[in-house]
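Progress against Task 2.4 (sequence-to-structure conversion) is shown through the following example record, which the project officer requested during the mid-term review.
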Amino acid sequence: MKTIKPDVNSEEYRNAISVERMRLSDKYTIENLIESKELMHRAALGIYDSVEWSDKRAAIVCGSGNNGGDGYALAGIIAENGGSAVIFRIGERFSDDGRYYYEKACELGVEDRLFDEDTSFDGFDIIVDCILGTGFRGKPEGLVAAAINRINDSGAYKVCADINSGMNGDTGEALLAVKSDITVSIGYYKKGMFLKDAPRLISNLVNIDIGIVLI
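Structure tokens generated for the chain above:
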């Protein structure tokens, strides 16, 4: 996998797509080719392969959507490979696939905690941001904002799943967003990963192909 810096003059930016095109391509692939649970597993495996986990303790911070589902699937993969991961959930809701991988991670013995105002990430070597997806607009609030600030204040290595939580996937605008050491884009690069605030928020960027057919 090729790791890059966000650069609007790059070939990667020229080939990047809109959030809506990504959504439609994902929908088409799920309806015609690959079931959604398999795509989620592939996404998690791609994130796993993009980071060195050996002898590291990972905090995986999950929101309520499919971005959180990628985190639960990742937690299970880490556990299956003998690694150490703790899930931090922001709220009690799950997507359907997210619940499936959450329950699987719990069966594998992954520790599960609810994130609150007193949560600390001290003692973790890696923090994985799986809170918000590419379709987010505006400014994060409440526990989501608290989690983003807590992640940014940590000295851990920061990994963002698909996009930095709080960043607009089309414009790159971010009033409050996670600042990553690496962002693992899933499927195709999105335009916002190269624009506006992205270069200051993303240190390294990599894309993983999970079999989504572009339409």
